[in-house]
Write a structure and sequence with these properties.
The structure holds 2 protein chains of 2 kinds. Chain A is α/β, with parallel strands linked by helices. Chain A contains 12 helices and 12 strands. In chain A, the strands form 2 sheets. In chain A, strands 1, 5, 6, 7, 8, 9, 10, 11 and 12 form a 9-stranded mixed β-sheet that branches. Chain B is mainly alpha-helical. Chain B is built from 24 helices and 10 strands. In chain B, helix 1 (5-16) runs parallel beside helix 3 (33-41). The longest helix of chain B has 17 residues, at 542-558. Residues 229-242 of chain B have low confidence and may be disordered. Classes of the chains: A alpha/beta, B mainly alpha. Chains A and B meet through helix 5, strand 7, helix 7 and helix 8 of A and helix 10, helix 11, helix 20, strand 9 and helix 23 of B.
Chain lengths: 443, 565
């Protein structure tokens, strides 16, 4: 693919990089004009205004206690592995459809909101998702999910590759955003820079408020310091580019964020529980979406799923840290979708959860579970064809990985990616994933 | 262009420490590069200048009807550490404390009592012995392998560190069956994150199997802490105030009947051995780890792992295999074996081989992206604000209890450090922080810029309450107008050109590019209406210092050049 960077096309289009004294608004306006004038015809802009929200459950979610066997032989095996300490009683489960092998299943009792969405057929439960030769390292396994490469080492992520492919001449500094301090590897791209937004309130370039008249001078000088000069080392260029993107994206963001509660949409917004870190992140995502800034992909995350100990409270399997986390997930997604409905964007949004692996079938004796492999993944949205896809992983000892007691996958995570790329983002999945995968009919 | 002697000295001071002020560079040049490197390496010969330990370490909070240390103790202890980095007379020792925290990243979130984090910090400095409950701070105790001693012993001491025991759950690891202990968390990270990596960093072959992880978790059963679980209100340990300090204990049994230690035999990395019921046999596993070589490889996996991590921390990202292997050879075959100081010598002493050639190369020069900690500490060391304090204050209130007040500057610095991506003692996850370009993204950038603005002039802090727009609060920065003027006058920098040149020498230690220099001079001269050349620049005028020179410092700290060490 012959992609043109934002910088290259600015050069090609004959636009001279700013001079000191040119206001930053003028600079970015000129840059955007250069973009629309020189390259519109070359831009293979994606034809839809859909938004994809990725929800990362960091640490390895215990899938077996998220979608839990309710009956049959699967249930009796579950009860062997999960002693009363971690065993969710049948009576407390929120029943969902049987899977393709007719296993009776239910959601963890904390998932009341997700269950309600499921009943509206807006939740796809993709069973037994994983990849061959599972890697039990958090970091290697996360990299595999981020890069969609279970074998080699890639330096770019699948979402970044998607943006490079679908938006080759992108000039929008908020084409995508990660909510949170750091940028996930899935967003790293060759050409596109994606901002990480820790907190919208602090995501702004400050000058000295005591000298407002000098602010523009300072901004001009900042831009000049980051302008292209003699070719320097790659690292310096990357920092310059990120510096400029930081400035451009905060300007766009601060302008767009105001639309969230300025009356553009019906008021008031739903209340996001500020004690729920995922809800706080999704509120920020909603504020970006409200700005109509052309943002196509958002990434939010919730940590804490590495539950080696204290996954549940002693003798209270319904309480404890995992229950708290799952409750946060359910509540945050529910509030976010209410907010999308308020903005009239609920048909435009698709969510996908993922975690780097599930946990082992047996608990470890510390009210916890060690690193496993396959686990369910969830896709949520008005456009989702709800239901259970695939089969719950077998719990027979002979079907577990002999060295780890981890459950085996039947659906490759890249099948989910391919389905979303093809059916939601309208991108050729083979270009991103390197080959074709069988799609899953949830869209 | 090869580096000259002055560049090399400045480079060494920046990397083996936290900054290089002009007078430090001059002293280093006068002394010679090699002698400067030796002096940094042999830091024991310089007296340390640490502050007294944070108050409250020994306080019996239960007697005062308090469940733990004062709220915010973590911040005070972090302030203590940051002051140590700012003021240290032993820069390389402090830099190694930071290195070990990067490598053995532990989070307060899992450690329960933040006082334990302070003790771990002392462990990394070489001043805490987890086997000696009555003598926690032991600068005279030369048995500690930290921070630059034998890595085999460093791993053993780490495995006995109570903070680590809590953080990675090994204090709960008990006998389970012949394959595995009840908690494999520490065993896995000991191999993956602390000693070898999932794969050999050069040959990219797997270093160990899942079976090794499980076998190792058996070896580590019973490596615990006393008391075992503070959350369950264990009775006070004799001679110790309530639940603190906690120290390492090997507990082969628990209660009257329960045997918690698995006596083996185990097979780890192809070596089979048994336990005798003391942790002495368990210590064999550290020999096995540091000696482990994959088939067909000349160097140990551990030596390569450490060679990679040390060079990445002090030199540049993704060092070449030859550099890694050279450092691994020093690890494997140096005298004595497995010694960190020998590896550091191979990097810092000029002429000692390929690692030092790489370290003093053009490729390495100003090519390391400062971590947030290096950015903050370096700024303090370069600009030396007067009257700053990141230290706690002790306040005795009416009820007779001693409380700790933390200064605004400390709280703000920690808030911004967090936004820059590195709040010490709160690593994002068990792998610590990813360095290099991972320090740079739009959010981290803005946090750097806004901290810089606050430091040199005035902080703007946004307090956001539920569903309300953020409220701006303004807090004075760290530099007084008079301090800035004194600095300029003392260095004969009174015109825009001289101010820019002097501050570039101070902050970057290299000249600016012509374009950057012009942009900064134009800024100093631009009138408040934007007209070029109309600002009445006069450093005797407070507005000149307060607006323009502070603005210049802010800009210089946002520039690409300042992000590099």
């Amino acid at each position: 693919m012959n992609k043109t960077t934002r910088r290259e096309f600015i050069k090609k289009s004959g636009f001279t990089m700013l001079t000191v004294g040119l206001s930053q608004q003028a600079f970015f306006r000129s840059m955007n004009m250069a973009a629309s004038g020189a390259l519109t015809q070359a831009a293979a802009l994606s034809a839809n205004d859909r938004i994809f929200v990725v929800v990362q459950l960091e640490g390895g979610n215990d899938g077996l206690n998220t979608v839990v066997p309710r009956g049959g032989s699967l249930r009796s095996l579950y009860e062997q592995y999960r002693k009363p300490t971690l065993r969710i009683p049948v009576a407390d489960l929120l029943p969902i459809n049987n899977d393709a092998a007719n296993n009776q299943l239910g959601f963890h009792p904390q998932w009341t909101h997700i269950k309600s969405l499921y009943d509206q057929r807006k939740v796809g439960v993709i069973q037994s998702v994983g990849y061959p030769n599972p890697n039990y390292s958090h970091f290697r396994s996360m990299d595999i999910w981020h890069t969609a490469n279970p074998v080699g080492y890639d330096t770019t992520g699948w979402l970044g590759d998607t943006l490079d492919l679908a938006e080759p001449s992108n000039t929008n500094p908020l084409i995508a955003a990660a909510i949170g301090g750091s940028l996930p590897l899935s967003f790293v791209a060759r050409e596109t820079t994606v901002p990480a937004i820790g907190n919208i309130a602090t995501y702004r370039f400050q000058t000295d408020t005591r000298y407002p008249a000098d602010a523009q001078n300072r901004i001009n000088a900042f831009i000049a310091l980051n302008q292209e000069g003699a070719p320097l080392r790659v690292l310096v260029e990357q920092i310059r580019r990120t510096n400029l993107d930081a400035f451009a994206s905060q300007e766009t963001l601060q302008a767009g964020r105001a639309r969230y509660d300025d009356g553009t949409y019906p008021q008031p917004p739903p209340t996001y529980n500020q004690a729920n870190p995922l809800a706080r992140a999704m509120q920020q995502a909603a504020q970006i979406i409200a700005g109509n800034l052309g943002t196509k992909i958002l990434h939010v995350m919730l940590g804490g799923f590495d539950t080696h100990e204290g996954q549940a409270t002693a003798n209270k399997p319904l309480e404890g840290f995992h229950a708290l986390l799952l409750g946060w997930v359910s509540e945050a997604i529910h509030t976010f979708l209410q907010d999308m409905k308020r903005m009239g964007k609920d048909d435009k949004v698709l969510l996908m959860t993922w975690s780097e692996f599930g946990r082992k079938a047996p608990e470890n004796g510390n009210y916890g579970t060690d690193h496993g492999a396959a686990a369910p993944l969830f896709v949520i949205g008005n456009s989702v064809k709800g239901g259970v896809f695939g089969e719950h992983p077998s719990l027979r000892k002979s079907d577990l990985y002999p060295d780890t007691d981890a459950m085996k996958h039947t659906i490759d995570f890249r099948q989910v990616y391919a389905t979303i790329l093809e059916k939601w983002l309208a991108v050729d999945s083979a270009e991103v994933l390197g080959r074709r995968f069988e799609l899953i009919p949830f869209l | 262009m090869p580096l000259d002697e002055r560049d090399k000295v400045a480079h060494l001071l920046r990397r083996a420490g936290f900054a290089a002020r002009p007078e430090e560079i001059e002293a280093g040049v006068a002394r010679g590069l090699e002698a400067t490197a030796h002096s940094l390496l042999n830091f024991e010969t310089t007296p340390d200048n640490l502050d007294p330990e944070p108050p409250g370490l020994n306080q019996n909070y239960q007697q005062n009807n308090q469940a733990g240390p004062p709220r915010g103790f973590e911040n005070f202890a972090l302030g203590w550490w940051m002051n140590a980095m700012i003021k240290t007379t032993r820069p390389l020792q402090e830099k190694m404390v930071l290195f070990w925290h990067h490598l053995f990243a532990t989070s307060t979130l899992g450690v329960i009592d933040p006082r334990q984090m302070y003790l771990q910090n002392q462990l990394f400095r070489g001043y805490f012995n987890p086997l000696l409950p009555s003598q926690r701070r032991t600068p005279e105790d030369t048995t500690s392998p930290f921070p630059v001693g034998n890595f085999r012993n460093i791993l053993m001491w780490l495995s006995r560190d109570p903070a680590m025991g809590y953080w990675l759950d090994n204090y709960q690891n008990r006998r389970k069956d012949n394959e595995v202990g009840t908690n494999e968390n520490y065993a896995r990270e000991l191999l993956e994150l602390f000693s070898m990596g999932v794969e050999d960093v050069v040959a990219h072959v797997p270093n160990y199997t899942e079976t090794d992880v499980r076998q190792l978790s058996r070896v580590l059963t019973g490596w615990s802490v006393l008391p075992v679980d503070v959350r369950n209100n264990y009775p006070p340990v004799e001679g110790q105030p309530n639940n603190f300090p906690r120290w390492f204990a090997f507990q082969p049994t628990y209660g009257r009947l329960q045997i918690t230690h698995d006596f083996g035999p185990y097979t780890v990395l192809g070596v089979t051995f048994s336990s005798t019921g003391a942790d002495t046999q368990g210590r064999r596993m550290f020999d096995i780890i540091v000696n482990h070589k994959n088939p067909g490889q000349q160097q140990s996996a551990c030596g390569r792992f450490l060679g990679y991590r040390l060079f990445q921390f002090f030199g540049y990202d993704d060092p070449e295999p030859e550099v890694i292997n050279a450092l691994a050879d020093v690890f494997d075959k140096g005298t004595p074996q497995f010694t960190i100081k020998n590896m550091l010598r191979a990097i810092f002493i000029p002429g000692s081989g390929i690692a030092s050639e790489a370290f003093y190369s053009e490729k390495a020069f100003r090519a390391h992206i400062k971590s947030p900690t290096e950015y903050i500490i370096g700024t303090y060391r370069l600009l030396k604000p007067t009257g700053y304090t990141l230290n706690y204050e002790l306040v005795t209130s009416n009820d007779g209890l001693t409380r700790l007040n933390s200064p605004v500057s400390l709280n703000l610095t920690l808030t911004f450090a967090n936004q820059m991506g590195q709040l010490l003692w709160r690593p994002f996850d068990v792998s610590g922080w990813k360095e290099g370009l991972n320090w740079i993204n739009t959010t981290f950038d803005l946090a750097r810029f806004n901290w810089a603005k606050g430091f040199v002039s005035e902080f703007s802090v946004f307090q956001q309450s539920r569903n309300e727009p953020p409220v701006e609060q303004r807090v004075p920065g760290e530099l007084t107008t008079e301090a800035v003027r004194t600095l300029l006058v003392a260095n004969n920098a009174q015109t825009p050109e001289r101010v820019v040149d002097f501050l570039a020498r101070l902050l970057y230690q290299v000249p600016l590019s012509n374009a950057a220099r012009t942009a900064l001079i134009n800024y100093l001269r631009a009138g408040t209406d934007g007209t070029p050349g109309t600002f009445p620049f006069n450093i005797n005028n407070n507005v000149t210092i307060d607006n323009k020179v502070r603005g210049l410092l802010h800009l210089m700290m946002t520039s690409p050049e300042y992000q590099f060490s």
